[in-house]
Amino acid sequence: KNAEKYEEILGSSITFDDVIGMEYEKEQVIPHLKYIKDPERWDANELTPPTGILLTGPTRTGKTFFAKAICGELHKQNPEKTLRFFTINAHDIKAEGIDNIMRMAKFFAPCVLFIDEIDLLGLQRDKERVLLADFLQALSGITDKDPKKQVIVIGTTNKPE
């Protein structure tokens, strides 16, 4: 029930055609797009699917727009699949708990879990590591061999360190 407040089902309204420049970044996302389109090929070669993307850059440079364009590209390549896009921020993770967020994402998979301003979680190694450990443990459990249960996590930050 809580998933409804985070969910946004994207069509092909925003795609890479709408993103000016960022050719290198588009190339880096291609493996994710290829995996969602043809997971059997990856599985046949026993390759680990790409499941995470971290977008960095100054404020107001289009990181969120680029994340939505990734979803638009996924939808464009797979129009028969419904792809859910969940937007979560640091406050939501602290309120709901990272385990609950990840369970929700796996339940609605395949989907994209977009964590906006991930740096606000305070996951640096020099602080208390409990949240960092919980976060990394939850992310490690998100990978699933079943292509219908894949969750791609996209994070954005202004502070890549």
| Strand and helix order | EHHEHEHHEHE
Please identify the oligomeric state: single chain
Gross morphology is globular
Q: Helix count, per DSSP?
A: 6
What number is the mean pLDDT?
78
The biggest sheet, with number of strands, parallel, antiparallel or mixed sense and barrel status, is: 5 strands, mixed
The beta-strand count equals: 5
Distance between the termini: 35 Å
| Rounded Rg | 15 Å
Question: What structural class results from the helix and strand content?
Answer: alpha/beta
Show unreliable segments: none
Strand order of the largest sheet: 1-3-4-5-2
Task: Classify the beta-strand content into a percent band.
Answer: 15-25%
Q: Bin the helical content.
A: 25-40%
Q: What do you see in this structure?
A:
The mean pLDDT is 78. Helix 1 (23-37) runs parallel beside helix 3 (63-77). The chain has helices at 23-37, 39-44, 63-77, 90-96, 98-107, 130-140, and strands spanning 7-9, 52-56, 84-89, 111-116, 151-157. By secondary structure, it is α/β, with parallel strands linked by helices. The radius of gyration is 15 Å and the shape is globular. The chain contains six helices and five strands; from the N terminus they run E-H-H-E-H-E-H-H-E-H-E.
